[in-house]
Design goal:
It is a single chain. The chain has ten helices and 13 strands. It is α/β, with parallel strands linked by helices and 354 residues long. The protein folds into two domains: 115 residues, Aspartate Aminotransferase, domain 1, CATH 3.90.1150; 217 residues, Type I PLP-dependent aspartate aminotransferase-like (Major domain) (Aspartate Aminotransferase, domain 2). The protein has a seven-stranded mixed beta sheet with strand order 2-8-7-6-5-3-4, sandwiched between helices. β9 and β10 form a beta hairpin. α1 packs antiparallel against α7 and α3 crosses α6. The protein is globular and about 60 Å long.
Length: 354
């Protein structure tokens, strides 16, 4: 870092994104992207919208908010669009956490949560997951802070049921509960239906995973209008034009083609279950994931060795240098062909190991 870098950030540990290689062809199972392209209508609409890039985008995302509200059975006042769901999550850390109100989240979860807390200079507390990687609901009873829960969780893929989310909401009436549903379309159950019942609920979702728009950075948060106004204050205090015109056009077209998206999400879920069975048959341990990835380990490949060996064979997976999960890997679900290649490669690695 330079000598000009502010001392308040010198201890900041930035989030590390998954590897995006350029030098050779890999099977990418490391960043939870969809293996399917956007619907053709999405690409056509983006091309049309490119002609208006001389103008600023609509800061209210009026047309997209209306389409999304109709799709979700909500009012536009219940929604704010964001530059990926990460921006909506950051707005929540900014708006709902401070010296008196810490952020509270699991010790094994999305790695951006502690980064958001540190960069916004708010205290946070991590709550250990159980040994089976599940959330102990009672740990969040009247916890005295703003709760952040990825559901399904990352990197474990384990999902909470709406009744469990509702218990946390009911037991924390004076603090927001943010439910990060980036992977909900792959087998989880959304908490969106609880918005009308709980004023402290904020649900965050993304177009990156099940809707194949990771490259356009589009997400949203849903909650009661007062919570949404709080987030809009953060938006208009940082970047009013946070969702560009191409992303707005893509989002509208994407929602109109949601059958296409949900069909592919179902295929990914089916391929995930096939892959899980194959890995279990080969001596792996794997969680009951409800996301577009698996969380798995094998006694023959401790630490980062599985990641390194697969990379040598042209397959990328994600490994986290973190206490409790150093012997586990997160494996994104690609096409059926991708996953068959993974299984065959694992077979060769096991044979070499023997």
């Amino acid at each position: 870092m330079s000598r000009f870098f502010s001392p308040k950030y010198r201890e900041l540990e930035a989030y590390t994104p998954g590897e995006q290689p350029r030098e050779r062809k890999f099977i990418k199972l490391n960043t939870n992207e969809s293996p399917f392209p956007p619907a053709p209508a999405v690409r056509e609409r983006v091309a049309e919208a490119a002609g208006g890039l001389n103008l600023y985008s609509d800061p209210e995302c009026t047309a997209l908010r209306a389409a999304l509200a109709e799709r979700l059975g909500l009012s536009p006042e219940n929604l704010i669009l964001s530059n990926g769901s990460d921006e909506a999550l950051n707005f929540a850390f900014m708006a709902f956490c401070d010296e008196r109100t810490p952020a509270v989240f699991p010790d094994i979860t999305y790695g951006f949560y502690p980064v958001f807390a540190r960069i916004n200079r708010v205290p946070f507390r991590t709550v250990p997951l159980r040994k089976d990687w599940t959330v102990e609901i009672s740990d969040y009873s009247a916890c005295g802070g703003t709760v952040f829960l990825a559901n399904p969780n990352a990197p474990t893929g384990i999902a909470l049921e709406p009744a469990q989310i509702e218990r946390i909401l009911a037991e924390n009436p004076d603090h927001p509960v943010i439910v990060d549903e980036a992977y909900v379309d792959f087998g989880g159950e959304s908490a969106l239906g609880l918005i009308g019942k709980y004023e402290n609920l904020l649900v965050v979702q993304t177009f990156s995973k099940s809707r194949s728009l990771a490259g356009l950075r589009l997400g949203f948060a849903a909650g009661n209008p007062e919570l949404i106004r709080d987030l809009k204050t953060m938006q208009y205090s940082t970047n009013p034009y946070n969702v560009d015109a191409l992303a707005q056009a893509a989002g509208i077209a994407c929602l109109a083609e949601d059958g296409y998206n949900l069909e592919h999400a179902a295929q990914i879920s089916e391929t995930r279950e096939w892959t899980r069975r194959e890995l279990l048959a080969r001596g792996f341990a794997a969680t009951d994931s409800r996301a577009n990835f698996l969380f798995a380990s094998h006694p023959a490949f401790p630490g980062s060795s599985l990641r390194d060996r697969l990379r040598e064979k042209g397959i990328l997976i994600r490994w986290f240098d973190q206490d409790r999960i150093r012997d586990w890997s997160r494996i994104s679900i690609g096409t059926r062909e991708d996953m068959e290649t993974l299984v065959r490669t694992v077979d060769r690695l096991l044979e070499e190991r023997a």
